[in-house]
Specification:
Blueprint: H1 15-42, H2 52-61, E1 67-75, E2 81-85, E3 89-92, E4 97-106, E5 112-121, E6 129-134, E7 140-142, E8 147-156, E9 166-175, H3 177-187
Parallel strand pairs: 1-9
Antiparallel strand pairs: 1-3, 2-4, 4-8, 5-7, 5-9, 6-8
Length: 197
């Protein structure tokens, strides 16, 4: 007596797993910004609000040393923005809170969303450079022709190795295609929706 072979599993059997992986990757991507803030506060000890006593004691301990911070900025070729630092260099005291401004302008003909990717050089200084507030934490929307000053607040850790005397903070803005496409219907309202019957 022969047994009939079991039918092969349907081709769509792995589809729920594939969808689950896609959802997990999507959620991980959007949780990176809050995780970055938590890491700054918990791992590096940088708090968004510092009391005057804490800032004064940190400043007094590091007053004998200054570090030169250089600023750089650019845009990806697909993003029609102008973007640059308003100040090219700054002498900072490790342990003190500092602020620098970047200028951005949308030279395109429609609203666009951009996302900034920061980098710190030399690479071993990145662990000693903490941003407490930054336009890179969230996507930025600029209307056609809109100009904006974008601040970044940062602290250089007093434990920065003594042989590092210059740190370069650089940003590159990229077009956020997914968020920019969502703006397109909102920026061109339908005239038929308000037309009389």
């Amino acid at each position: 007596m022969s047994q009939t072979p079991a039918p092969p599993p349907p081709r769509h059997a792995g589809l729920p797993r594939l969808i689950g992986v896609a959802v997990a990757v999507f959620l991980l991507t959007f949780s990176l910004v809050p995780l970055y803030r938590i890491a700054c506060e918990k791992v590096f000890g940088v708090r968004l609000e510092r009391g005057p006593g804490a800032q004064a004691s940190a400043g007094a301990a590091a007053a004998r040393r200054t570090v030169r911070v250089e600023f750089d900025g650019g845009v990806n070729s697909r993003l029609p923005w102008s973007f640059h630092p308003e100040q090219l260099t700054m002498e900072v005291v490790p342990g003190e809170l500092n602020e620098a401004l970047y200028f951005a302008r949308n030279d395109g003909g429609a609203a666009i969303v951009g996302s900034a990717v920061p980098s710190v050089a030399p690479a071993r200084a990145s662990g000693y450079f903490s941003k407490t507030e930054c336009f890179c934490f969230t996507a930025q929307t600029l209307q056609a022709g809109e100009k904006r000053d974008m601040p970044v607040r940062f602290i250089v850790d007093p434990d920065l190795p003594a042989d590092i005397r210059t740190i370069t903070l650089s940003y590159t803005f990229f077009k956020n295609d997914a968020l920019s496409e969502r703006l397109a219907p909102a920026s061109t309202p339908s005239r038929n929706a308000h037309a009389a019957p």
